[in-house]
Structure formats: structure tokens, C-alpha cells
Design brief:
With 234 residues, this protein is mainly α. The protein has eight helices and no strands.
């Protein structure tokens, strides 16, 4: 087990994948969408709070944090001072690459959003996102949830921060997961996404962070050594 320090996390990642596939099989996406919308659409779609705060405001804040992480590579602060330069680079790149990965998947997706469905006042018919290449009659580009990645993209920071503080790493991961779920649910209430879209975004961002961690641990262990001795606690 010592030769494979990420083995347990790898198993948990696969279990999460199975759980996601099980959720897709339940048909729960449409059930939850129908709880938020009706044949006349989604009442909260154009809510000023949902649009300007939960969507635009959260997105802008996320980009500010990304820029801050890249700036901290050169000018670290707080707990980031205890990370090596290589670890700070990994942290910033993990966030950016997670966002890019989700965006690329969305660009290739033929799945339309709930508000595009005929039963909610749109033109599309419901087609599972597993039906690759099948056009549902709508604009597509809705899978997975891009907005939720504004928070879920940070989950990979867990791998970096655990090198200097397991407690800080757990708090970081928990905050990213909660924020991502909040943003995902806010978009679902607007009719912009299904629950599966949010859950898949979380999984994709975790896998990106995990894959980067495995790669840099294997090939760049020296560059990842803490900048100062890591003692217990943050």
C-alpha cells in the first residue's frame, strides 16, 4: 500500500463513478426538474438574485480567485507560503485545467438544458446525455454543468494542501464541494441544468485534480517538497 499512496482515493473515485451511473439510471433528473419548472417554464430563470449574484457574481469571484492563485505562485501568502513553488503551480493549474476540461465536454455535448425541453416551454425533447451524437432538437452544449465548475474546479487543491496540513486540505475540499453544490442547485432551480450535470462536474474536476496529482507525484516529487517543514495542523 505504501507504494500506491493514492490507491484508496482511486477506489473511492471509482465508487463515486458507479454511484453517478446509478443516479443516471433512476431518471431522477427529470423528476427534480419538474419540481422547479412547469409547462410555462422556470419561475426563477430570470430572478435578479439568481442571475446577478448566484450566476454572474459567483463566476466573477471564481476568476478573481484563479488570478489570485496564479499571483501567489510568485507572491505566496498565508498557508501557501508553506507550499513549494511547484505545489503552488500545481494548485493554480489544477483549477484552470478543471474548468477547461468541463468546458471542452460542454462544447462537445448535444444535451440541451431543461429550459429547452418542450414540456418546459422549449423546443427540445429529452435525450439522455449518454446518447452521444443524438440531437435532441435543442441548442445542446449543456452537459456537464459549467457554472458549478466555478467552485468544483478547486477540489484538486485538496491533494496539494494535504502535503502541509491535512486539516486545511479537508476544509478546502469541503468548502469547494459545498460551494459547487450550491451553485449547481441554483442553476437547476433556473432550469439551466439537471442534477446529474452538477454531479458529473464534481467528478470530472476531482478526476482532473487526481490525475495531475498522480502525474506530478510520479515525475516531480522533488519540486513538491514543502517550502518549510510541515508540522501538524495548519
Amino acid at each position: 500500500m505504501t507504494r500506491f499512496p493514492n490507491f484508496r482515493l482511486g477506489v473511492l473515485t471509482l465508487i463515486a463513478l458507479v454511484a453517478l451511473m446509478a443516479w443516471d439510471a433512476t431518471g431522477g433528473d427529470l423528476m427534480l426538474a419538474r419540481m422547479a419548472g412547469s409547462h410555462i417554464g422556470f419561475p426563477l430563470r430570470d430572478s435578479p438574485f439568481m442571475v446577478h449574484v448566484m450566476h454572474e457574481g459567483a463566476r466573477d469571484l471564481s476568476w478573481v480567485l484563479v488570478i489570485t492563485l496564479f499571483a501567489a505562485i510568485r507572491w505566496p501568502f498565508g498557508l501557501l507560503r508553506r507550499l513549494s513553488t511547484g505545489s503552488r503551480v500545481q494548485l493554480a493549474l489544477t483549477v484552470l485545467l478543471s474548468v477547461i476540461a468541463v468546458s471542452l465536454l460542454k462544447h462537445a455535448s448535444h444535451t440541451s438544458c431543461p429550459w429547452d425541453l418542450q414540456e418546459f416551454g422549449g423546443m427540445a425533447r429529452y435525450v439522455s446525455h449518454w446518447s452521444w451524437g443524438v440531437d435532441d432538437g435543442g441548442p445542446g452544449g449543456c452537459f456537464p454543468a459549467g457554472h458549478a465548475s466555478a467552485a468544483f474546479a478547486y477540489v484538486g487543491g485538496y491533494f496539494v494542501l494535504r502535503r502541509v496540513s491535512s486539516r486545511a486540505a479537508a476544509i478546502w475540499l469541503g468548502a469547494a464541494m459545498v460551494a459547487g453544490l450550491v451553485l449547481g442547485v441554483s442553476q437547476q432551480l433556473r432550469g439551466a441544468h439537471y442534477m446529474s450535470h452538477t454531479l458529473w462536474t464534481a467528478w470530472v474536476c476531482w478526476v482532473v485534480g487526481f490525475a495531475i496529482e498522480v502525474a506530478v507525484t510520479r515525475f516531480g516529487s522533488r519540486a513538491l517538497r514543502p517550502a518549510v517543514p510541515a508540522h501538524a495542523g495548519p
